[in-house]
Design goal:
Helices cover about 5% and strands about 40% of the residues. With about 375 residues, it is mainly β.
Length: about 375
């Protein structure tokens, strides 16, 4: 299929509601170039910041997946495809997958909430494995774009997922809720803001997260360094499950602000994040000149660092990434909280709302 024309939504443009693939969102409202724009090109929503030469591409119909954040032509997200429009799903280790209703692993085919054990129905096929991982929403086609606009300050798109309408989802996680996500590009920084509204009559646990696959283009993975703004490391078992014990981060990373990736293979979780006056914690990935800061809001209580090395004979390019994952709870947080081994599990009161953001801030491009 050919590339369908997109229509720019500039700072003066009207909002558009209920986007459908290939349908123009609005007419051009101004002839002079605008700093910010939002447009739909087929299945792709694109946000652009001309001032910093930054462009973001999002696929609402494939799990609301962000696949590109290009800075002066350099994509800080791993995405081995020629264009966002080319991607039709089915490939892992790309972009910024959203993980819900739980992020990372569970230690059994069940989770606990409010003192009750909820066993998964494995026959439905949307939960798999002895240690279910990453929830089941990362590629669902059910996100609906409810607004995409640009003004003189930013360009943004807001999408909504009505979890409660899906019986097979509710069977696995019986808490009626909606999820709203806004991607906002301003000053070359991408904010990903998430809001969850609990429609249930019981308190709902929050164990969501994101799994971004980051890359720098001025050097290979083994020349990168990490800065991890955390105080506590949770050692994991042979099946990558926290044991419940903790240790100071310096026992794992002697220099947390300058972690050399070359000798390391990581799949580790950290908490007690080091925060600024606004409650934000900043993790950084650094190359020769390029740098990417990942800034976590206060309700992202932990971070998972995933940095595998290529297996023998494997193409090194397939592992030329690092995942700095904003998560609301540690690995297996739902079940560790029930066991009394994790104290920071967040709950949304009946009829209540949870919301938080993380930000991606590139530099040196």
């Amino acid at each position: 299929m050919g590339r369908k024309p997109g229509v720019v939504v500039s700072a003066a443009a009207l909002l558009f509601v209920g986007l459908a693939p290939g349908r123009p969102a609005a007419v051009r409202q101004a002839s002079r170039p605008q700093t910010y724009s939002a447009r739909q090109v087929g299945s792709v929503v694109e946000l652009s910041d001309r001032g910093t030469q930054t462009a973001v591409s999002i696929l609402p119909g494939i799990g609301n997946l962000t696949v590109e954040m290009k800075v002066k032509g350099h994509n800080v997200l791993r995405f081995p495809f020629n264009s966002a429009a080319e991607y039709k799903g089915g490939t892992g280790s790309i972009g910024i997958p959203f993980l819900a209703p739980w992020a990372d692993r569970l230690d059994e085919q069940a989770f606990y909430a409010n003192g009750t054990r909820y066993a998964f129905d494995m026959s439905l096929g949307n939960v798999r494995g002895a240690n279910p991982i990453h929830g089941f929403l990362s590629s669902v086609p059910d996100w609906k774009v409810i607004e995409a606009r640009a003004d003189g300050q930013s360009a943004w798109v807001t999408s909504r997922l009505e979890f409660f309408k899906h019986p097979s989802w509710m069977k696995q996680f019986p808490f009626a809720h909606t999820i709203e996500m806004t991607h906002r590009l301003s000053g070359g920084v991408l904010e990903v803001a998430t809001r969850i509204d609990n429609l249930s009559v019981e308190a709902m646990p929050v164990a969501i997260g994101f799994h971004p696959f980051f890359q720098l283009t001025d050097s290979p993975r083994d020349e990168w360094t990490l800065s991890v703004a955390a105080r506590t490391h949770w050692p994991v078992s042979d099946v990558k499950m926290p044991t419940g014990k903790t240790q100071p981060i310096e026992s794992f990373f002697p220099r947390p602000s300058a972690v050399e990736l070359a000798p390391l293979e990581l799949d580790d979780v950290f908490s007690d994040l080091v925060r600024d006056a606004r409650g934000r914690a900043t993790m950084s990935l650094k190359g020769k000149a390029q740098q990417l800061d990942v800034v976590l809001g206060a309700n992202y209580r932990a971070v998972v660092i995933y940095a595998p090395k290529p297996a023998q004979g494997q193409d090194p390019a397939s592992r030329n990434f690092v995942c700095i994952e904003p998560v609301t709870a540690i690995i297996n947080g739902l079940n560790l909280a029930h066991a009394g081994l994790y104290k920071e599990l967040q709950m949304i009161a009946p009829g209540g709302t949870w919301q938080e953001s993380f930000w991606l801030r590139p530099g040196g491009f």
